[in-house]
Design brief:
143 residues; alpha/beta; five-stranded mixed β-sheet; 4 helices; 18% strand; globular
Amino acid sequence: MIEPWQESAPGVLRLPSGRLVRGRALRRPLPEGPRPTHAVHLLGKRPPEVPWESVWLRWPDFRLPADRDTARAVLADAWERAADERVEIACGGGRGRTGTALACLAVLDGVPAEEAVDHVRRHYDRHAVETPWQRRYVRRFSA
């Protein structure tokens, strides 16, 4: 079994089911400690290679995913993997796109869509989910 994230580590969000997911800013150095086993990179252009499994979800800064069906599938896969793996969700700054994706994972985990942004802001970053359209995307995201 893979050692899970430490709940007290920077950027780690505990979902109601107990799953732990790490959000982070790709512009900052990789935090010390264990590396992810699976990462979802939310960027407008292809990210650099990393030595762990990763998926690129095309998602321009301050926008929404380029392909919403693909986004749903990638996020559902990340949520499932978080039960047994160290999953990381990351964008350039670690707040807008990352917060939006984390809020979608919270919806998949049973948090009502209307409460998911507040949940992520309380437990991950108070500035997460930066735009009105990102908030609307989460409200319309269903489990």
